Amino acid sequence: MAVKQEHSVQWRRLAKFHRETLHGRERRLAKIGSEIRRVKECVGLPQSVVEEAESLVKRYFEVVAGFPPEVVAVAVLWTAAKAAGAPRPLEDFLKCSRAEERRVRRVAWRLKEVVRQSKRPSVEDYVGTLVARVNLPAPIVKAAVELLERNRRVLAGKNPWVSAAAALWLASFRKLGLLKALAEAAGTTPASIRNAAKRMRV
Q: What span, in angstroms and rounded, lies between the C-alpha atoms of 128 and 126?
C-alpha cells in the first residue's frame, strides 16, 4: 500500500510539473504573440507576415525561448518580412519596440541558421535523386537507405552524393557497370565511390 501511495505522490508531482511547464510555454507564446501584433500595427505589416512570424515562434520555440518577448517579436517579424519578399530595415521595427538591436540580431541569426539546417536535404534525398537518374528497383533503394542509417556517424561531413552512390553500389552487390553509371549520375568518379564504400559497414 505504501508503494502505491509513493507512486501516487510521484505522479502528482510529475503532473504538476508538466502542467506548470505547459502553462508557462502558453503564457510565453501569448506574450510574444501580443508583442508581435503590437509591433505589426506600429510598423504597418501585412497579416501574412504576422502569421509567418507566429509560425516561426511555434516551430522554433526552444531557440527563442530564452529571450525577452519584445526581442523575439522584432526578430521573427524582421525575419518573416524578408522571407515574404518584403524586407524592411531593422530600424523600422526598433522604433516600435524597446528591444535591443544586438539581441534582435542574435535571435534573427539563430533563426536563420536553424531554418537553413532544417531545409538541408538528407543523404536519403540524394539516394532518391540518383535512383531516378539510374533507374534502380525498390529493394536496392531500401537496402541502401539501411546502409546509410547504419553508417551515419562514419559518413558525417562527407560528400552526400558520393555516400549515396556508394550505398547504392553496395546494395546492388558491387556491379561494375552500375558503378560507372552511379559515378556519372552523382558527378563524381568510380574511385571516390569505391573509397566511400570501403569506409561503410555492410
A: 5
Measured distance CA(73)–CA(97) in Å, rounded = 9
The string of pLDDT tens digits covering residues 81-118 is 988 888 899 999 999 999 999 999 999 999 988 887 77
Nearest to 52 by CA among 103, 87, 7, 91: 87
Note the CATH number of domain 123-199: 1.10.472.10
What is the DSSP-derived secondary structure letter of residue 158? Answer: S
Summarised one tens digit per residue, pLDDT across range 125-147 is 888 889 888 888 888 888 998 99
Helical pair 160-171 and 176-186, crossing angle rounded to 10 deg: 160
d(CA 170, CA 65): 45
Please, what CATH class does the domain formed by 2-119 belong to? mainly alpha
Catalogue the long-range contacts made by 124-132 (C-beta closer than 8 Å, 24 or more residues apart). Answer: 124/148, 124/164, 126/160, 126/161, 126/163, 126/164, 126/186, 127/164, 127/167, 127/168, 129/164, 130/161, 130/164, 130/165, 130/168, 130/182, 130/185, 130/186, 131/168
User: How many other C-beta atoms can be found within 10 angstroms of the C-beta atom of residue 113?
Assistant: 11
Domain with CATH 1.10.472.10 in the chain: 2-119, 123-199
